[in-house]
From TrEMBL:
The keyword Protein biosynthesis does not apply. It catalyses: [GlcNAc-(1->4)-Mur2Ac(oyl-L-Ala-gamma-D-Glu-L-Lys-D-Ala-D-Ala)](n)-di-trans,octa-cis-undecaprenyl diphosphate + beta-D-GlcNAc-(1->4)-Mur2Ac(oyl-L-Ala-gamma-D-Glu-L-Lys-D-Ala-D-Ala)-di-trans,octa-cis-undecaprenyl diphosphate = [GlcNAc-(1->4)-Mur2Ac(oyl-L-Ala-gamma-D-Glu-L-Lys-D-Ala-D-Ala)](n+1)-di-trans,octa-cis-undecaprenyl diphosphate + di-trans,octa-cis-undecaprenyl diphosphate + H(+). It comes from Tengunoibacter tsumagoiensis. It is found in: Cell membrane. Pfam families: FTSW_RODA_SPOVE (PF01098). Its EC number is 2.4.99.28. It comes from the Bacteria. This is Probable peptidoglycan glycosyltransferase FtsW. The keyword Cell division applies. It is an enzyme of class 2 (transferase). One of its GO terms (biological process) is cell wall organization. Belongs to the SEDS family. FtsW subfamily. It is a multi-pass membrane protein.
Length: 469
């Protein structure tokens, strides 16, 4: 309840709410309370007789929903601009989410050091070479997380278009001037020390931009001309550039986060299913070409002796590492597969090394941490008061969790092998820094969580269903 104050004494008194600094009152509290017509003093009629006050013709009541009068488009836009400019009082961040992410980060640093010692000693002459670079990336990532955690997430709406203007040209530049490694051209190298992967940055930038774009569209998201068509053009163009880099795993992650945000914003179900079907057909045409076709063949028959030393080498050695770990593992640093048998033990295959050294218990702990991250992230999306924050939390959480699912699923032969890093654990500074910056945005969203009567996400979904019915 907002505190009330009387503007005047007597029968004409009107009580209005006092606005608490830093908070925007709900629609229900924005209307002042006025006494009934029976409380008004009598007025003098032209005939000189006292009588009842002159009554106006009754007006058609405004449509009400959730206990508040719905605003038109212009009023919603003005209210959104007002709320953007008003200062807000930040609360406490989600401590459990921070603990989960830092736990994954610590496990990742330990496993990168353990998994990369043999490879680093053989190619660089220093067993801790990759660990030192990962430690530097973790320090920069934590700094980025602390910065994004302090910035009001609404402010990113002003820079999302600028981020797209920077990230998309980088995706084009990497096709021409990028460094080719492991069969893909994904890295922009600056000297022999610094390298950067634009496809990692585009995940965060695209989540920021799509959340702002869908929030501005409002009810037009459910239309074909203003909703589905521009969405398909935007996301399809980004996916085309990523697929030209031979990076199918990242393309799937981008498609997943964009689709989850579009569906959450209130997409038309029939149009959405049609677009999904077309997208799956396009992905399938790309999945059965070149080396990807060979991975499908190896996935169908992973233990065929004919494929163990060529098509299925990485998958077979990953399964062998997981099987030899047992319940409690061989012990930290005692992996045998990392000594030249398993390709990329510190990057794509790090979960296999983790399972070999820490066993089923260690692998289950990592999976539970990612499940906890998914729960806290989607819980934030559910409780956020504005639709922009709800969409942004949905996109970031979907991205991190889906990427973990793809990495672990490929390592355990649940899906065909594709190369994506395990968030916060695999070696790779670009992925680590961007992922931690995204977590900082999630933590900032958690600082403004309140207990609304009806959260923004439920409100938008209910409105969409009522209009369709």
């Amino acid at each position: 309840m907002q505190p009330l104050v009387k503007a005047a004494e007597g029968a004409d008194a009107v009580t209005v709410p006092i606005l608490t600094p830093g908070k925007v009152p709900s629609l229900r509290s924005r209307t002042s309370r006025v006494g009934s017509l029976g409380d008004l003093p009598p007025v003098q009629h032209p005939s000189g007789r006292l009588g009842e006050p002159k009554r106006e013709a009754p007006k058609k009541p405004a449509k009400r929903m959730f206990g508040a009068t719905l605003l038109n488009t212009d009023e919603q836009r003005l209210l959104s601009l007002l709320e953007m400019r008003l200062p807000r009082i930040a609360g406490k961040f989600d401590a459990l989410l921070l603990v989960v992410v830092l736990s994954l980060l610590c496990i990742g640093l330990v496993m990168v050091y353990s998994a990369s010692t043999f490879v680093a000693a053989r190619c660089c002459g220093d067993p801790s070479y990759y660990f030192q670079k990962q430690l530097l990336g973790a320090a920069l990532g934590v700094c980025a997380m602390l910065v994004t955690m302090r910035i009001d997430y609404r402010q990113w709406r002003r820079f999302s278009l600028v981020g797209m203007a920077i990230s998309v040209p980088l995706l084009i530049i990497v096709l021409k001037f990028g460094t080719n490694a492991y069969g893909a051209s994904r890295w922009l190298s600056f000297g022999s020390v610094l390298s950067f992967q634009p496809s990692e940055l585009i995940k965060l930038v695209l989540a920021l931009y799509i959340a702002d774009w869908l929030a501005r569209k409002g009810n037009q998201v459910g239309t074909f001309l203003y909703g589905l068509a521009p969405f398909v053009i935007l996301v399809g163009g980004i996916l085309g550039l990523v697929l030209l880099e031979n990076d199918m795993g990242t393309a799937i992650v981008i498609a997943g986060l964009a689709t989850a945000m579009f569906f959450t914003a209130g997409a038309n179900i029939l149009q959405f299913l049609l677009a999904m079907s077309c997208g799956i057909l396009i992905f399938m045409t790309q999945a059965f070409r070149g080396y990807r076709l060979l991975r499908w063949i190896g996935f169908v028959d992973p233990f065929n002796p004919q494929y163990m030393t060529n098509l299925n080498l990485q998958l077979y050695q990953s399964l062998l590492a997981l099987g030899s770990g047992g319940w409690f593992g061989l012990g930290l640093g005692e992996s045998r597969q990392k000594t030249g048998y398993l390709p990329l033990p510190h990057i794509d295959s790090i979960f296999a090394i983790l399972g070999e050294e820490l066993g089923f218990i260690g692998g289950t702990l990592v999976i539970l941490l990612f499940l906890c991250l998914a729960f806290r992230g989607f819980r934030l999306a559910r409780r956020t008061q504005d639709i922009y924050g709800a969409l942004l939390a949905t996109g970031i959480t979907t991205w991190l969790v889906l990427q973990a699912i793809i990495n672990i699923g490929a390592t355990t032969a649940l899906i065909p092998y594709t190369g994506v890093p395990l968030p916060f654990i695999s070696y790779g500074s670009s992925s680590l820094i961007v992922s931690l910056a995204a977590v900082g945005v999630l933590l900032n969203i958690s600082r403004y969580i309140q207990e609304p009567e009806t959260p923004a996400l439920s409100r938008s979904i209910t409105i969409a269903f009522r209009k369709k019915s």
